[in-house]
Amino acid sequence: MRPGRAVASFDSTTGLLRGLSNYLAGRDAPLLDQLPAALEPAMNGLMAGVNRLH
Length: 54
Fold this sequence. Notes:
The protein is mainly alpha-helical. It has helices at residues 3-6, 12-24, 40-52.
């Protein structure tokens, strides 16, 4: 079952849970519904590039 169907996506606790589960799986934290889901892959790539500028 997809997390969006099982758990409310607007709660901060849900955001922390999703971030922690992604971290433990070796992935980056999701954008947590800040943008439409279709833009998430592109924004992840863009933000990874921005993070490398530091």
